[in-house]
Design goal:
Helix content: 25-40%
Radius of gyration: 19 Å
Largest sheet: 13 strands, mixed
Shape: globular
Number of strands: 13
Structural class: alpha+beta
Strand content: 25-35%
Distance between the termini: 32 Å
Number of helices: 8
C-alpha cells in the first residue's frame, strides 16, 4: 500500500463525503456536515492513495466514554484492496476504551460482528407522504412550538434521555441550521416531544423524533411534513419501539432501508420507548 495515508478531513472533504454517501443511496442531509463538524472536528478521517481520496470514516467522540462510527465508505474502484480495513482500524483506535456504536448496513453486519459489535435493534427507514387521520392533532394540553423558543438547556437535557452522552454543540447546530425546522411539544412547561426536519437529496428526513406518546409523535410528524416541498418524509425508526413502527406504518409510510444499531458492549440505557426516529445513522 505504498502511497496510502490517513489524514483528518478538510471542509472540502466533508462535502465530498456527503456526495459519496449520496451515491451509496443513504440520502444525507444537505447541511448535515456543518453539524457533524462541530460534534468532533477531528473525528472524520480520509484515506488517500498518492493524494487521491479513496475511503472515509467518522469516529466521533462523545463525552469521555462513548463514540460512534459512521460514513465508512471505500470507493467501488478500490474495494477489496485493504484500504478500507486500514481506515477502520484507525477509526476504532481513535475510540479505544469507549463504548462504540454504529448503524450497520445489512451486507456489512457480519464484518462488524467479527470486530466485536452486537446488534441492539434495527433502524428501519419509513418513507412517504404521511396520510392525515385522527392522529394529526396534538393531545389536549400539548402545544407544539418552535424548539428555538425554548431554553437550549431544556432541549439538551431532554435529548439526554434518548442519547447516551452529552452532545450540546452538535445538537445546537443540528436544530438551528438554516433551512431546518425544529419543533417541540410542551405540556405545562415540560418537554414531551422534539422533532427536526432537514432537506435532503431525496425525501426530507426527520430526526430526531422523540415523544411521550404516539399521538404527540404523529402531531410533530405532520407539522414537520408541512415544511417539505411535496410532503414526503423519511424517518429512521427503531424496531425496538413497536409503537413507533405501528405509527409510521399506520400513517402510510413504507420501509425503504434498514441498518442494525450495534454496540461493542451492552446497549446503553436510553428511553427507547420515546424514540420514534433516531437523529442520524451517521452520528447516532
Amino acid at each position: 500500500m505504498t502511497g496510502f495515508e490517513i489524514i483528518g478531513a478538510s471542509a472540502a472533504d466533508m462535502e465530498m463525503i456527503r456526495t459519496w454517501a449520496d451515491e451509496e443511496g443513504w440520502n444525507p442531509g444537505d447541511s448535515d456536515r456543518f453539524a457533524f463538524a462541530v460534534a468532533d472536528p477531528a473525528g472524520f478521517l480520509v484515506g488517500r492513495v498518492d493524494g487521491e481520496p479513496v475511503a472515509c470514516i467518522s469516529a466521533v467522540r462523545y463525552g469521555s466514554a462513548f463514540g460512534f462510527i459512521g460514513f465508512y465508505i471505500a470507493r467501488p474502484a478500490v474495494r477489496g484492496q485493504g484500504y478500507g480495513i486500514r481506515l477502520w482500524h484507525a477509526g476504532m483506535e481513535r475510540l479505544d476504551g469507549r463504548l462504540v456504536g454504529l448503524d450497520g448496513v445489512v451486507d456489512q453486519q457480519d464484518n462488524y460482528r467479527k470486530s466485536g459489535f452486537r446488534s441492539a435493534w434495527n433502524n428501519v427507514r419509513y418513507e412517504g407522504v404521511p396520510r392525515v387521520n385522527g392522529s394529526s392533532g396534538a393531545e389536549a394540553g400539548v402545544e407544539v412550538v418552535d424548539a428555538g423558543s425554548l431554553p437550549f438547556g431544556q432541549v439538551a437535557a431532554y435529548d439526554r434521555r434518548f442519547f447516551p452522552a452529552p452532545r450540546d454543540a452538535f445538537l445546537s447546530a443540528w436544530t438551528g441550521l438554516p433551512g431546518r425546522t425544529a419543533l417541540a411539544a410542551v405540556r405545562e412547561g415540560r418537554l414531551e416531544g422534539l422533532g427536526v426536519i432537514r432537506p435532503c437529496s431525496g425525501a426530507s428526513r426527520i430526526g430526531p423524533l422523540y415523544a411521550s406518546t404516539p399521538a404527540i409523535a404523529a402531531a410533530l410528524l405532520h407539522r414537520l411534513a408541512e415544511h417539505t416541498p411535496d410532503g414526503a418524509v423519511a424517518v429512521d425508526v427503531p424496531d425496538a419501539n413497536p409503537a413507533a413502527t405501528a405509527l409510521l406504518a399506520g400513517l402510510g409510510l413504507a420501509p425503504s432501508f434498514e441498518a442494525a444499531r450495534m454496540y461493542t458492549g451492552p446497549a446503553p440505557e436510553v428511553e427507547v420507548a420515546g424514540i420514534y426516529g433516531v437523529t442520524s445513522l451517521e452520528l447516532g
